[in-house]
């Protein structure tokens, strides 16, 4: 019996692999994709990110049948990848697209729409709508030869939408586009999602993906190492950071939080001292002479609140390992009772860039992983097979 198809996924990929035979390495093979698993929900903007050579473009080209996979299980729009009827419901913008220089923007859409069997009346109607959508309607009668890189990208997006697709696959859609243009393209992508379309983005611009994507996947050396919503992927890093200033008449060094708060803070938390408190540490309400910057940097308290939430006090301030504002309130009350001025209370989490850098860093050496799968294996006995 076949595997049941979940209609909620625009892409449901399993065991996608691609092995190239490398002449540079003699009789060897390079595994560009090593069993990619990925699911893209219908009606969402999904971002695929990873370093150069991670296999992102290889995956996109497999989806669009530009290259053959060594293995590929799963579906696209409810049918096996490569199903011709399904491909007619997909709009595609390649990373390095080219249009005939002698055609106008309107002619480009009409020409490629005709190649895709879009009826003439639909082509003429949609051309104007799409050029207006991407913000170049006034250039409809101008030749592509005079277009900037950003204008060509906009025209490419319009062309990808000519077939009124359910799934839009965009490979580096904001490459070469200025900040104003990138913002406008983000708005276009949001409108496509609001229309119920699925948008699959492959991009190096992490800040762009973070602003627009519902979910993301991080690909490293031919494997998807993480995928989900940014909130899900950053859940463990969420925290509150509290920045305080000393009360009037107390120097900044003397008001180092790790010195000024104990022992009162121990009523809220069990803290470990690194190193132990100096003998001159103040009791509640007392003053202390300034400590050296070296001592201030060394003073650090870490422990847990009674609720189990981790907390750290150091020269930078107080970090509370939760995104629950109720857990922070007793700490703020204590700070005020000790006369400290609360300068800032900031909810903090890892950025998409932080997630990316963590994914491409070898945890054993701390070094950035090399591009590509970085694997060379002896050829397998049969064509289209990959090593394990």
Helices, strands, pairings?
Layout: E1 9-22, E2 28-41, E3 45-49, H1 56-63, E4 71-76, E5 79-80, H2 84-87, E6 90-93, H3 105-115, H4 120-133, H5 149-160, E7 167-171, H6 179-194, E8 198-202, H7 206-212, E9 215-220, E10 223-228, H8 230-233, E11 239-245, H9 257-260, E12 269-273, H10 293-298, E13 301-305, E14 310-314, E15 317-320, H11 325-337, E16 341-348, H12 352-359
Parallel strand pairs: 3-8, 3-9, 6-7, 7-8
Antiparallel strand pairs: 1-2, 1-4, 4-5, 9-10, 11-15, 11-16, 12-13, 13-14, 14-15
Helix pairs in contact: 3-4, 4-5
Structure report:
The structure is a single chain. The chain has 12 helices and 16 strands. By secondary structure, the protein is an alpha+beta fold. It has helices at about 55-65, 85, 105-115, 120-135, 150-160, 180-195, 205-210, 230-235, 255-260, 295-300, 325-335, 350-360, and strands at about 10-20, 30-40, 45-50, 70-75, 80, 90-95, 165-170, 200, 215-220, 225-230, 240-245, 270-275, 300-305, 310-315, 315-320, 340-350. The strands form 3 sheets. A 6-stranded mixed sheet has the order 6-7-8-3-9-10, sandwiched between helices. Strands 12-13-14-15-11-16 form a 6-stranded antiparallel sheet.
Outline:
With 388 residues, the chain is of the alpha+beta class. Among the domains are: 9-89 and 165-233, P-loop containing nucleotide triphosphate hydrolases (Rossmann fold), CATH 3.40.50; 239-348, no CATH class. It has 12 helices and 16 strands.
